[in-house]
TrEMBL record:
Gene Ontology MF term list: sialyltransferase activity
Record localization: Golgi apparatus membrane
Listed PANTHER family: BETA-1,6-GALACTOSYLTRANSFERASE GALT29A, SIALYLTRANSFERASE-LIKE PROTEIN 2
Keyword Repressor in record: no
Keyword Membrane: yes
Gene3D superfamilies linked: Glycosyl transferase family 29
Name of the protein this chain belongs to: Sialyltransferase-like protein 1
Length: 397
């Protein structure tokens, strides 16, 4: 008797139903303490998440600047100020003569900014420190341990004393009309992102600020517009007493920090806190882990295929994610506002931007925030910090 074969159409239908059921299983919430990636797959996700191609690129940029960058200034027309250029040599092809490419251009005052040679020496010293810190963390197994020093860094307090309650205020348009302002201001510490405006929005986003967390693009934009006119640059919209906590996304921005600091005065200081290299690495791992997990859940493909839909050179965590991670150690209770989206809502409450940036996986980051609230013991990498316990986290949508 001949063996009957399942018709190809029925076989494909059965396979599709099986795939749909598997994807639905992956998207279901897990019991407390359970892991969806059994048999070592969670360990695989952690291992893949620790590969930071974007971080490698930043290191390469810093090394190129250290080896080849030049700084030169020229008087502007009318001698009102100086034009400062940061340049590196490049070749359009293998046989062409080297030419100078401008990496950064700033208007700076005649007085206060060091000479070209002194400024270049200081810039190279900053680059060396930046490279050493990031190369060193690759040899450490306790990357997550970087959060231990955050209370003293952010709050200026001795020891490991935390703030009692903290509000991390995201910039999502869902805050418009929320009337969360008074609730946000009632926290002991409010952490805001990328110098987002509060004037005109206080009813929804509050008015108090204890720390402004920014990426270095914000500093660069600020230096371009204010280095020539404002001592210490005009980078502190919440007041000079409110420090900027900044992570460096482009090494060239270290020059902006040097210039703003050089022109600072006692009346116009430039308080800046640069994040620990290990904290940057921790946030990169968390963001990539959750993005890969979301990819597996949505496609059913192995996490190694994640790179087919994400360019690792430019994939990056958001400023909000790093601010939240910082708050986990600096605060006894953490409230999250403005993290999420809704149909028709603007991307940022204070701008007209509607489209999300492609270099972030916001949906994956939202799952991280939900895990912090609902099952913190399942959050990867934080469980590697000795004696660390995730504080209570409340996500307000």
């Amino acid at each position: 008797m001949k063996r009957r074969r399942l018709p190809s159409v029925l076989f494909l239908l059965a396979l599709a139903l099986l795939s749909l059921a598997f994807r639905r299983y992956l998207s279901l919430p897990l019991p407390i303490g359970a892991s969806r990636f059994a048999g070592g797959s969670d360990a695989l996700l952690r291992r893949l998440a620790a590969i930071d191609v974007g971080g490698d690129q930043i290191l390469a940029e810093a090394a190129a600047l250290l080896a080849n960058a030049s700084v030169s200034t020229f008087p502007s027309l009318g001698n009102h100020h100086r034009l400062l250029y940061l340049r590196v040599p490049y070749r359009s092809n293998a046989t062409s003569a080297p030419r100078q490419r401008t990496v950064s251009r700033l208007r700076v005052p005649f007085h206060g900014v060091p000479s070209d040679a002194t400024l270049l020496a200081a810039f190279r010293a900053s680059l060396r420190g930046f490279l050493l810190a990031r190369q060193h963390h690759r040899h450490l197994h306790d990357v997550a341990g970087a959060i231990a020093n955050l209370p003293a860094l952010l709050l200026g307090r001795g020891g490991r004393r935390r703030a009692a309650t903290c509000a991390v205020v995201g910039n999502s348009g869902i805050l418009l009309g929320s009337r969360r302002g008074a609730q946000i201001d009632a926290h002991d510490l409010a952490i805001r992102l990328n110098n987002a405006r509060v004037a005109g929005f206080a009813r929804d986003v509050g008015a108090r600020t204890g720390v402004s967390f920014v990426n270095s693009n914000i500093l660069h934009h600020c230096a371009i517009h204010s280095a020539v006119t404002t001592p210490g640059c005009g980078c502190h919209p919440y007041g000079r007493a409110v420090p900027l906590a900044m992570y460096v996304c482009q090494p060239a921005h270290l020059l902006d920090a040097l210039i703003c600091n050089a022109t600072a005065t006692p009346e116009s200081p430039f308080p800046l806190l640069v994040t620990d290299a290990r904290l940057d690495a921790l946030c990169a791992r968390i963001a990539k882990y959750y993005s890969m997990r979301r990819f597996v859940a949505a496609t059913g493909q192995p996490p190694s295929n994640w790179t087919r839909s994400h360019d690792e050179r430019y994939f990056h965590y958001s400023s909000g994610l790093q601010a939240v991670v910082m708050a986990l150690e600096a605060c006894e209770e953490v409230s999250l506002f403005g993290f999420g989206k809704a149909p028709g809502a603007k991307h940022h409450y204070h701008t007209n931007q509607k489209k999300e940036l492609d270099l972030h996986d916001y949906e994956a980051e939202y799952q991280f925030y939900r895990d912090l609230q609902e099952r913190p013991e399942a959050v990867p990498f934080l469980d590697e910090v000795p004696a660390f316990k995730v504080p209570p986290v409340k996500l307000y949508l």
